[in-house]
């Protein structure tokens, strides 16, 4: 999250019409990728054997597992998602241009290649910051290609903020944040979803997109960089319906209806809230308005993609050095993950 990205209503973001845009960049370098290996799980009978994931009994977050099982939905392993969150933190702070950022890029690509043969790296050097960035794109085919419906997309940002501009200690303001919630949480959920999608081919094609440079800053003219680039250089067949996950690891996660999402993609908001109810997580998705948030969904909306932002902006350590794993929980990752499973597997094939 960023100043101007996400504080509302106390810190009112810029009106959408006044959102600055970055200069156009060169066309994307989309590189096909090869395959790779590994994941994890301990729970109610989920086995990982040489990269093969067997997903039987549902065993998700409290309040959702039984409803997920009754609905016949695939299991989302919150423990596995938590392991992915901790793995990201083990790299250290991960702003664009750092060695840890480069290592995490390789980690994301490797995890995607383990679970799908359709992985691309959208790479460019952004002229505003003169640093290389990468959007990691993974595609999963529908279970029956001839009957696949309209594809859907899930997005998150994987970079972290290079400055703790909201930290109360002036000494800390120039330091990079750990990014447990703001960056690692949404990325962890998408990483775990790759296992679900591999083991349980979805009813429609699914894209997972890890966007770079969302949190660079300090101002909004140097934020949402990967989303803006993706919007301007959409790969062929880019889905027209998308859900953005950002800051969803907060202990006791609650996701109100972000107002720009509600105004510009109300039908999709209703769709996801209905999925949360099917998964047994209506308490975490209250039928109430949240603030208006500037985030990666706005460039996608402007490009004609219906995209909504799932975000818990009540997170107190936002943009501080206190954005650490102890402020997050596997159960929150499970709530979001199970809701996304319900949404994906609730899509109707053609």
Question: Can you give a write-up of this model?
Answer:
The chain is of the alpha/beta class. It has a single domain (16-36, 76-344), classed as Aminopeptidase, CATH 3.40.630.10. Helices cover 29% and strands 15% of the residues. The chain is built from 9 helices and 9 strands. It has helices at residues 65-70, 78-90, 99-115, 184-199, 225-232, 259-264, 266-278, 297-302, 330-344, and strands at residues 29-32, 47-49, 52-54, 118-126, 131-140, 152-157, 206-211, 241-246, 306-311. The strands form 2 sheets. Strands 1-4-5-7-6-8-9 form a 7-stranded mixed sheet, sandwiched between helices. A two-stranded antiparallel ribbon has the order 2-3. The longest helix has 17 residues, at 99-115. The N and C termini lie far apart (37 Å). Mean pLDDT is 85; it is low at 1-60.
């Amino acid at each position: 999250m960023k100043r101007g990205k996400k504080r509302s209503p106390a810190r009112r973001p810029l009106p959408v019409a006044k959102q600055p845009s970055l200069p156009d960049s060169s066309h994307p370098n989309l590189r096909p990728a090869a395959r790779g290996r590994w994941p994890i799980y301990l729970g109610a009978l989920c086995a990982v054997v040489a990269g093969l994931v067997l997903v039987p009994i549902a065993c998700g977050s409290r309040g959702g597992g039984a409803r997920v099982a009754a609905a016949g939905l695939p299991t989302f392993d919150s423990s596995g998602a938590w392991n992915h969150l901790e793995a990201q933190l083990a790299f250290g702070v991960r702003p664009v241009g750092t060695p840890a950022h480069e290592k995490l890029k390789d980690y994301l690509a490797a995890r995607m290649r383990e679970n799908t043969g359709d992985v691309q790296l959208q790479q460019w050097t952004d002229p505003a910051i003169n640093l290389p960035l990468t959007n990691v794109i993974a595609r999963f085919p529908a279970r029956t290609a001839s009957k696949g419906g309209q594809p859907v997309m899930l997005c998150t940002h994987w970079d972290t903020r290079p400055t703790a501009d909201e930290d109360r200690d002036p000494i800390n303001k120039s330091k990079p944040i750990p990014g447990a919630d703001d960056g690692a949480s949404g990325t962890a959920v998408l990483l775990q979803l790759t296992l679900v999608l591999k083991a349980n081919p979805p009813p429609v094609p699914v894209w997972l997109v890890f966007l770079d440079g969302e949190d660079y800053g300090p101002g909004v003219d140097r934020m949402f960089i990967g989303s803006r680039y993706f919007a301007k250089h959409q790969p062929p067949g880019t889905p027209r319906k998308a859900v953005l996950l950002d800051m969803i690891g907060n202990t006791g996660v609650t996701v109100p209806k972000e107002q720009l999402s509600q105004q510009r993609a109300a039908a999709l908001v209703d769709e996801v809230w209905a999925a949360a109810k099917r998964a047994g997580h209506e308490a975490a998705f209250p039928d109430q308005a949240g603030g208006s948030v500037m985030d990666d969904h706005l460039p996608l909306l402007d490009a004609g993609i219906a995209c909504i932002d799932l975000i818990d902006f009540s997170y107190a350590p936002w943009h501080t050095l206190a954005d650490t794993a102890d402020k997050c929980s596997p159960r929150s990752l499970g709530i979001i993950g199970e809701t996304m499973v319900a949404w994906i597997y609730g899509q109707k094939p053609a």
